[in-house]
Amino acid sequence: MTKTKETRDSGVAPLTEAQGEEKQSRNRKSKRKQEIEMLKAQVEEKTKLGEENYDRFLRAQAELENYKKRVEREKSSLVKYGNEDLIKAILPVIDNLERALDHPQGENPDGVIEGIKITLNQLLQVLEKFGVTRIQAMGEPFDPSKHEAMMQVESADHEPNTVVSELQKGYLLNDRLLRPAMVSVAQPPKKKEEGEGSS
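Structure (tokenized):
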């Protein structure tokens, strides 16, 4: 009696059980609708992010392909024209050799020989500029990593296993063996057998 009176006094009609359930159902639907809207917004955001990432991936892939093509072109050009500087530097040496050959034979042979020596030194300087150096062999101990022994020579004037003559010069390219020096190597003279000199 008191409850009904209080309700009546407040001016709010009491909810029936069906009305309460309907209100809860509306609240649940509204809440579900909000969750769906929120999920839709998240899906749209993720879709947009995915599209942006895919676009970035396509651009990066295109850039990588362009880079590969450029490197391939540069590599091909390097293989084809990599010796251009060396060849340009050698051309004046060839010119000097041709001048020496054009020099009249028999006329001042010492001058021709001197010209050839100068030209040879010029060529060696060009090669040195590009990292080619001669291997020092004469008087050096035999080194199988730089020298190729062609013969052994008996010599009392040289230490055993010392290079006594060069048959062909050896060269290094930036400290890597380009061609070994062909050399003859000293060995101690054989002792004469007893009785050989007495007869």
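Residues 21-82 form one domain. DSSP finds four helices and six strands in the chain.
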